[in-house]
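Lecture 7 notes: from sequence to structure.

We start with a single chain of 329 residues. Read the sequence below before looking at the structure.
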Amino acid sequence: MGITRREFAARLSLGVGALALGAPGRGQEPERCGIVVAADVHLKPDEPRSGRSFMRFVEDVNDNLPDARYVLLLGDLMDWGTDESYALMAELQAELRPRVLGVPGNHDFRPRLAGDETGRRTDDHSMEYFVERFAYAPGPYYSFALGNTRFVMMATERCHSNPEEVSYGGWVSAEQREWLDGQLSRAESAGENVIVCSHQGIFERAWNTHTLPYCMNPPEPLAEVLEAHPIDVSLSGHVHGQLQEHHGEMVEERDGTVWINGGALSHARDGRMQCRYFEFVDGAPGVTIRSRDVADVRGTPEAEHPVGCFIEGLDVDVPLRHGVRLTGA
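Now the structure, written as tokens:
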């Protein structure tokens, strides 16, 4: 269940998530910064419509979201991690005006999806190849700060040794868990808000009705790290085929963390191409998360959710523990 504006105001009256920040002077507009979040492009070079669909997203961001500073792509950028897919995705991403950052998903590498009866194979690219081709950061998992908010970008480490029962779930090595613990500890000490980004969810979500474990694994040691630190927002993708017309079900609050599904840009698997927009305003007590239908690629009814604009009734105001400070960001 999301947080309504009324609940947001009630929390502020109790001081939850508020931070005493200096208000802008008379006549001055506070600094703003937008972050576009999307996932599950499933780009297919052999289907021209696939590339055109992603370009509609590129054009929407470039033309209609002038305050966007980053685009975060949360995995499954390609349907199969072939050389052609990597080349085309790199070319399309270069057209985006904001800086692009991302993390790998289960479709972006690994020779074969376990349980896939077709036997189709990728070009056996590794997580290191993903890092090299897209150059988001020096390594597959990393973090960056926007003012006093730290984005922790986790990587799903799929490989031949993954247990069969978590073949579609993410895999987090002991090394990455140690790194994650260090990142969260330093953010907590520095008084930073924390937004964790991953392809699969860091915990199983209530709306995840699949029988296979679709979250990050192994769950117990990962939970030990996550539950030891405060996390403001968890962002993920991965589960999308059954949610294309249910924006409201993609946001819920649990144990002090707001869980957001980033929406899918897949043209083939979903009727709507969706994304989220994080609107940061300097001095605000929290962030506004907005939902956007970028395009309707199957001709589904548009009466409830028109395309090419924000869906006003689904805005979610999320208080952040330390408010928003963008000055110098």
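The two ends are 31 Å apart (CA to CA). Keep this in mind for problem set 3.
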